[in-house]
């Protein structure tokens, strides 16, 4: 079959057009896939940093506790005389008191044979008291090496946890082992708020922590005979069936990043080895949305190429028509040139505006961060100076107990500064540990220590009314302290020139289960035109040079980060008030 020259040229053009459309679709699919993978990998790295930091900190938080008990006379005495009922009762109550402060799940003492002699849960059902744990790896390792670490399901409680053990060998005591059990379920609950899935795999390749229950206590690969024998002996997974996951490695994308298929679904997996445990931390991200986006990008690119080709054909036909209409060619060309100039000018204007907006955003972020750092660092430093001066005076009067109290508060302030610097290290990853119960009265007392100097200087009378007295909120303790100090300091400064200076803090439990704290003062009212803009950056009622107008902005951001709200208004009798609305802690939670 032969074609005329004109027909052959048309066939070639159509084939070339189809090839261009196909290539455009392939390029669009590839670029979209690579961009999606890069975003997933970056997000996974951020989650790994945040989760690994929090989990490592949780695993080492109680390292000091077993060694501390070795210095307590009642524990070695009980190991020497395990049948002494009075010693056993004293040890039980001592462990319960220590654990009430440490807030571990369980704290107990074992003799050299693995029998539990004393326990912090001695008076509760399912206590470890009297149980035998000689087969547990943490018991074996502690006697052989001095220390032991183990994750497993409790024999009596049936709840999983992380066990930290320490051998007591101080003469003349009989060797024994102190064990701390740490509950990591709160960490799992916090991870569920993150995108994707998070799992922790132990040294046998078994998932021990996971944001999905169907993944927990399942090995990535079938266990061999030695591993099954060890599991049967030490019983780390309770009664779990240990059914292997359908885990298939598809492609290695980078060190520590793989594309896998698990339970029939493709996932992007990023891994990190924990510093304080022989575990692997994994994040799993679903690949289905990425592939849908890649297909859409391919279709869009193909359609875009079709549109370009149609535009090209149209232009080509137009040029043919223009060659036939020489009279209109100059006008059309001028219009075309003018349009291009306008597009170029508009594009340049848009780019300049975009650059200005980006720069403004950077400066605003820099200003907020600088102000936040100044607030966070200045408050504990001011409190430390006040406490140290007070300690010197108390020491001169030989009031040693109060000196110790001041020194303990200074130590807490130093810990707070250490936490702040640790948070700065992971600033780009946005933290992340979940809120914890915080007693409202205790938080107010801590804040009053920081503003004590200002209270005395201005002669402010402080009234605190918390009902019920044990009212607690779910919050970040450091963030809540910053908010309280900022609000109290603003109120004190507002009342500087007032004849009556009363600062009142009232806490109540609302009908919907929220904790509402009202901070009111007897200072001047806030101007009506300022109230709606009070929580906007750089809005302040202070004289020029006295503030940047960022303190309330930061307070509002901190409260929102704790799932709360902050609002302000004027009192009918004069003065202003601020209302902090936060989730109330469960009555059974221990702040």
Could you walk me through the main structural features you see in this protein, from its secondary elements to its overall organization?
The chain is α+β, with helices and mostly antiparallel strands. Among the domains are: 64-183, 2-Layer Sandwich (Beta-Lactamase), CATH 3.30.450.20; 186-290, Beta-Lactamase; 433-583, Histidine kinase-like ATPase, C-terminal domain (Heat Shock Protein 90), CATH 3.30.565.10. Helix content is 50%, strand content 20%. Strands 7-6-11-10-9-8 form a 6-stranded antiparallel β-sheet. The chain has a 5-stranded antiparallel β-sheet with strand order 2-1-5-4-3, with helices on both faces. Helix 3 runs antiparallel to helix 4. The longest helix has 71 residues, at 326-396. The chain is flat and about 115 Å long. The N and C termini lie far apart (89 Å). The relative contact order is 0.07. Mean pLDDT is 81; it is low at 357-372 and 422-431.
Q: State the major sheet.
A: 6 strands, antiparallel
Regions with pLDDT < 50 over 5+ consecutive residues?
357-372, 422-431
The CATH architecture of the domain at 433-583 would be 2-Layer Sandwich
Percent of residues in helices: 40-55%
CATH level 1 class label of the domain at 433-583? Alpha Beta
- The total count of helices amounts to 14
- Average pLDDT number: 81
Strand fraction:
15-25%
* CATH homology superfamily of the domain at 433-583: Histidine kinase-like ATPase, C-terminal domain
Shape: flat
Strand order of the largest sheet: 7-6-11-10-9-8
| CATH fold group of the domain at 433-583 | Heat Shock Protein 90
The count of DSSP E runs of length 2 or more, i.e. the number of strands, is 18
Radius of gyration: 33 Å
State the end-to-end distance. 89 Å
